[in-house]
């Protein structure tokens, strides 16, 4: 019986819950108007502290950063948002390109009343953050690109993203949504039940199939080509920059992450082992340490 009880405790400890990640965290969930776009956010930290905005990836939502709010709220006014057309934020009803996301981010910063912010983006969020750094250097303090997109067009990866994402949106069963989530992660043995449940609820919203098609616009070769960032764009970034990559990223290997960092003047490059496309979730302790050390100027 003792062994069974021990096993039961072990299983309970290993179960990953969005709510348990937020228990004890003083946070708010809500909506604000960003230039006419109803935008959902998670917020933690005193609003008189420097602003930090977390941006998720394609088809994602604010819960991508549930394991990072508490650590960062000690030092920042932290906002994790549902990006334009994603999650529970308004869906504009047209194909979404990087400029649309950048404009929404600008409107969001205006809505929270800040002239400058630290921006940290994962995947699509990193692509948007980098473009923001190029276009609006006066609004940016420090920049973090976390397994960021936008530097290349790999046909196999683009096809995989479309296939998994549209399957989950068109038929959001547990299996299709879980397949989309597991693709992000290095450890395929876990079920990620709570994140799957959160995303399944998002994908079951009326009209989300059309919204996902709009999100997938950047996987179209022609649209992607005109949004990609190259040496001129990366080379013009003036903000202090951290590029975070992982050992098992499904979108690009470490070489690509290092190449991105090499194009950004003075950028720091870090590799997180044992992680896939969501290092901030898979290994939050390491991510939070690296991230905070950089944002606070300790690196």
UniProtKB/TrEMBL annotation:
<dbReference type="GO" id="GO:0016020">
    <property type="term" value="C:membrane"/>
</dbReference>
<dbReference type="InterPro" id="IPR050266">
    <property type="entry name" value="AB_hydrolase_sf"/>
</dbReference>
<protein>
    <submittedName>
        <fullName>2-hydroxy-6-ketonona-2,4-dienedioic acid hydrolase</fullName>
    </submittedName>
</protein>
<feature type="domain" description="AB hydrolase-1">
    <location>
        <begin position="50"/>
        <end position="284"/>
    </location>
</feature>
<dbReference type="InterPro" id="IPR000073">
    <property type="entry name" value="AB_hydrolase_1"/>
</dbReference>
<keyword id="KW-0378">Hydrolase</keyword>
<dbReference type="Pfam" id="PF00561">
    <property type="entry name" value="Abhydrolase_1"/>
</dbReference>
<dbReference type="InterPro" id="IPR029058">
    <property type="entry name" value="AB_hydrolase_fold"/>
</dbReference>
<dbReference type="GO" id="GO:0016787">
    <property type="term" value="F:hydrolase activity"/>
</dbReference>
């Amino acid at each position: 019986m003792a062994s069974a009880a021990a096993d039961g405790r072990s299983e309970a400890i290993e179960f990953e819950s969005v709510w348990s990640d937020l228990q004890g965290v003083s946070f708010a969930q809500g909506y604000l108007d960003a230039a006419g776009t109803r935008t959902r956010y998670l917020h933690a930290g005193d609003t008189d502290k420097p602003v930090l905005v977390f941006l998720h990836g394609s088809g994602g939502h604010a819960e991508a950063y549930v394991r990072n709010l508490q650590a960062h709220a000690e030092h920042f006014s932290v906002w994790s948002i549902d990006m334009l057309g994603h999650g529970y934020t308004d869906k504009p009803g047209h194909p979404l390109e990087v400029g649309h996301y950048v404009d929404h981010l600008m409107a969001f910063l205006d809505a929270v009343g800040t002239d400058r912010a630290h921006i940290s983006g994962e995947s699509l969020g990193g692509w948007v953050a980098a473009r923001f750094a190029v276009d609006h250097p006066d609004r940016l303090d420090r920049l973090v690109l976390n397994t960021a997109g936008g530097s290349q067009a790999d046909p196999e990866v683009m096809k995989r993203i479309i296939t998994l994402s549209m399957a989950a949106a068109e038929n959001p069963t547990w299996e299709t949504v879980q397949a989309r989530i597991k693709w992000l992660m290095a450890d395929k043995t876990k079920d990620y039940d709570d994140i799957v449940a959160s995303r399944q609820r998002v994908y079951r919203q009326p009209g989300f199939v059309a919204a996902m098609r709009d999100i997938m616009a950047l996987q179209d070769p022609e649209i992607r080509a005109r949004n990609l960032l190259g040496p001129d764009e990366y080379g013009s970034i003036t903000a202090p920059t951290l590029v975070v990559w992982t050992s098992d990223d499904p979108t690009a290997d470490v070489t690509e992450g290092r190449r991105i960092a090499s194009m950004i003047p003075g950028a720091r490059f870090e590799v997180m082992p044992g992680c896939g496309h969501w290092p901030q979730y898979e290994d939050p302790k390491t991510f939070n340490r690296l991230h905070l050390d950089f944002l606070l100027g300790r690196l």
